[in-house]
Design brief:
The chain has 143 residues and is an alpha/beta fold. Helix content is 31%, strand content 21%.
Length: 143
């Protein structure tokens, strides 16, 4: 009844106006901390592209005038927690992913190498992204 934070995760079909507006009201009216489990734009599920949590996070940030604390990709602490839990350093780690921004770009921003794999939601346009240049591009994980 007296929330101090709102955590936004992947809700798929529950991302609708009514629910997003409830979240907006909680954040705005209670001055809640706003936490998002990621900022990914979209992913591929069952062969179709599906909006991820990022567009909803961005809309709520805009409407509330408050930046979310991001716990997942592409936030640096997400990657750092991974290599630290394995007792490794960033120099010893490589991120392999199909998302040019969240996987490859997030990894590089965190100080680790990012490899783009041509599977999943990859598109040929990813290879000429003006902001993120992968350290390596591979066709699949066997390469």
């Amino acid at each position: 009844e007296d929330p101090n934070c709102v955590v936004l995760g992947d809700a798929v079909d529950l991302f609708n106006y009514e629910n997003i507006n409830k979240v907006f009201r909680l954040i705005k009216e209670n001055d809640c901390e706003f936490i998002s489990l990621g900022k990914g734009k979209y992913y591929r599920e069952d062969g179709a592209l599906t909006l991820d949590v990022g567009p909803f996070t961005a809309g709520l940030e805009f409407a509330c005038g408050k930046q979310a604390v991001v716990c997942g990709k592409p936030a640096k602490p997400f990657f750092q927690a991974g290599w630290e839990s394995l007792n490794l350093t960033g120099e010893e780690v490589v991120m392999v992913g199909d998302d040019i921004i969240s996987d490859v770009g997030g990894a590089q921003e965190a100080g680790i190498r990012g490899v783009l794999v041509r599977t999943g939601k990859y598109t040929p346009a990813d290879e000429s992204n003006p902001e993120v240049k992968p350290d390596l591009i591979v066709d699949n994980l066997k390469d």
